[in-house]
Write a structure and sequence with these properties.
Elements: H1 2-25, E1 52-67, E2 72-89, E3 92-102, E4 111-126, E5 134-150, E6 157-175, E7 179-189, E8 199-201, E9 205-216
């Protein structure tokens, strides 16, 4: 009887040792494949802009032009302006611009056409680069060409040119990454007066308002 008990105890001890091993053999681990990092591409960052700005604006220019007797010939001239700028320092750009103005309100029958063409350089300084919208200062200088077409039976045509200097303020707001809207006020100064017997400017200064769209690239 004691032999039988010893054998039973040995068998029980052996089963006790083997049972955890067998239990561990029944544990299944779920296989989780490692993600393939190469299969995922990081989102591409937008290509950096190169600091160029091309803008097109509609312009309204106010300034009295009178005849020799002091009667007003024209009070305002609408037109268009195109400008190309390149950023040279943060918030500072320089470039060139051209402007065309055409009088529509002249009342004298001896005038057939009255136009102003201006070409020159411009400096733009954004003084609030972190604000939305942004405020900027403009300085410009160049030449202006005044062209007047009279009735042929009187004196023919008249062309006059002068230096022109300008200073003004503008505000712009972005439309996405590559487009912006802007509005400007500028005072332009022409040192040379109209020296024709039939026309004379009442002031060297003209006041110009403009609004337009810019393309950034």
């Amino acid at each position: 009887m004691p032999c039988f008990s010893q054998k039973t105890a040995r068998v029980a001890a052996l089963l006790f040792l083997l049972f955890p091993i067998g239990l561990q053999g029944q544990i299944y681990r779920v296989y989780r494949p490692v993600a393939d990092v190469s299969a995922y591409t990081e989102p591409k960052e937008p290509q950096p802009l190169h600091g160029w700005e091309l803008s097109l604006s509609g312009v309204w220019s106010a300034g009295l032009l009178q005849d020799g007797s002091g009667w007003t010939v024209s009070e305002s001239m609408p037109g268009a302006r195109v400008r190309l700028l390149k950023e040279i320092f943060p918030s500072v750009s320089v470039g060139v611009e051209g402007q065309w103005l055409h009088a529509l309100d002249y009342q004298d029958t001896y005038l057939n056409n009255l136009e102003k063409y201006a070409f020159g350089g411009v400096l733009k300084w954004v003084i609030t680069p972190d604000a939305r919208p942004q405020l900027y200062v403009l300085l410009s200088g160049g030449m202006v060409f005044n062209r007047v077409k009279f009735v042929q039976s009187i004196v023919g045509n008249f062309n006059q040119r002068s230096a022109v200097w300008g200073a003004g303020l503008g505000v712009q707001t972005s439309l996405g990454r590559r487009f912006a809207l802007h509005a400007e006020y500028r005072a332009s100064y022409e040192p040379s007066e109209w020296h024709n017997l039939l026309l004379q400017a009442s002031s060297h200064v003209r006041h110009e308002l403009s609004a337009g769209v810019s393309v950034l690239f």
